[in-house]
Amino acid sequence: MKTKIIILSAAVLGVLAPAASAQQSTVNGAAGGAVTGAIVGGPVGAAVGGIVGAAAGTAIDPPPERVVSYVETAPAPSSEVVVKEEIVVGKPLPEAVVVTPVPDSPKYAYAVVGEQRVIVDPQTRTVVKVIH
């Protein structure tokens, strides 16, 4: 049974990998999703998990180095908001946090939460990178 799951998982990845070869995170997401799906739901779970993992992996690509460099040195927006939740990649920032656009990079914005600078998708407010 395990051999069938492994073979099916490899087949799913073989179908998904060429379409996702331009984005490494998509391949990683598909692989992780397929393996997790196979463990939980068998062959059908592997197929569904691979597709869901590919979609989730595509959503969180790291920003380019020029954006990271800008955010590391940009002035901190004034904000007195206290955030109790942990700020993590893949989760949206609370609405009360001030988000500032990154000049010349409309796909990115940044915020300063406590002592952390974070880069976010300005449309969804989803954290794409936490700068330590």
What does this structure look like?
This is DUF1236 domain-containing protein. Pfam families: DUF1236. Keywords: Signal. Residues 1-22 form the signal peptide. The protein has 132 residues and is α+β, with helices and mostly antiparallel strands. It folds into two domains: 2-59, no CATH class; 65-131, no CATH class. The protein is built from three helices and four strands; from the N terminus they run αααββββ. It has helices at 2-19, 24-59, 65-73; strands spanning 100-102, 105-113, 116-120, 127-131. A four-stranded antiparallel β-sheet has the order 1-2-3-4, covered by helices on one side. Strand 2 (105-113) and strand 3 (116-120) form a beta hairpin. Helix 1 crosses helix 2 (24-59). The radius of gyration is 18 Å and the shape is elongated. The N and C termini lie far apart (44 Å). Residues 6-24 have low confidence and may be disordered.
Short overview:
It contains 3 helices and 4 strands.
Q: How is this fold's topology laid out?
A:
Blueprint: H1 2-19, H2 24-59, H3 65-73, E1 100-102, E2 105-113, E3 116-120, E4 127-131
Antiparallel strand pairs: 1-2, 2-3, 3-4
Helix pairs in contact: 1-2
Signal peptide: 1-22
Protein name: DUF1236 domain-containing protein
Organism: Neorhizobium turbinariae
